[in-house]
């Protein structure tokens, strides 16, 4: 199962649409996970139309319409791996232990907000992934997104892509 992980797209504030390489990944993915800060419901509509399956949450910059359509936390079992998606996890310091407490029944937590790519493992073995942003790099050297695969009940081939 092929996954695309994106967050903090901020369309149309930071870009009119997603970059072409991201749209190609949308077309190739079995599941797209979006960790919030969409900004415009039109992007949600377009991703829903173009994705085989979309799992998304609202972020702190998303207005009432997106908050009415998306949860704060989304959970899904994909190929035997328990995923949760959320926009914010708080400060980097103490993140692993804090997320272990908040998401005890999760194997992989996808989050956003900081626009900083993140890949770590908590003390109990949960994988924490932040794809950064494909449209608003802030102080990062590149716009980014993640791809991954689920095979045999395990997360594999986690790859950070720079745009």
Automatic annotation (TrEMBL):
Keyword Metal-binding recorded: yes
Enzyme class: hydrolase
UniProt keyword annotation of Metal-binding present: yes
Domain of life per record: Bacteria
Enzyme Commission number(s) from the entry: 3.1.4.-
Residues annotated as domain Calcineurin-like phosphoesterase: 1-151
Cofactor(s) the protein needs: a divalent metal cation
UniProtKB keywords: Metal-binding
InterPro entries, per the entry: Calcineurin-like_PHP_lpxH (IPR024654), Metallo-depent_PP-like (IPR029052), Phosphodiesterase_MJ0936/Vps29 (IPR000979)
A Pfam family it matches: Metallophos_2
Coiled coil: none
Similarity annotation: Belongs to the metallophosphoesterase superfamily. YfcE family.
Protein name: Phosphoesterase
């Amino acid at each position: 199962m092929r996954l695309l992980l994106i967050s903090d797209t901020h369309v149309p504030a930071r870009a009119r649409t997603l970059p072409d390489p991201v749209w190609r990944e949308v077309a190739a993915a079995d599941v797209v996970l979006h960790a919030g800060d969409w900004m415009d419901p039109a992007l949600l509509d377009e991703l829903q139309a173009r994705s085989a399956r979309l799992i998304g949450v609202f972020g702190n910059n998303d207005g009432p319409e997106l908050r009415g359509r998306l949860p704060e936390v989304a959970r899904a079992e994909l190929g035997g791996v328990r995923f949760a998606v959320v926009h914010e996890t708080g400060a980097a310091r103490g993140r692993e232990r804090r997320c272990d407490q908040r998401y005890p029944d999760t194997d992989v937590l996808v989050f956003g907000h900081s626009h900083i790519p993140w890949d770590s493992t908590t003390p109990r073995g949960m994988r924490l992934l932040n794809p950064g942003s494909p449209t608003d790099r802030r102080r990062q050297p590149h716009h980014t997104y993640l791809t991954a695969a689920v095979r045999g009940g395990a997360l594999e081939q986690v790859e950070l892509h720079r745009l």
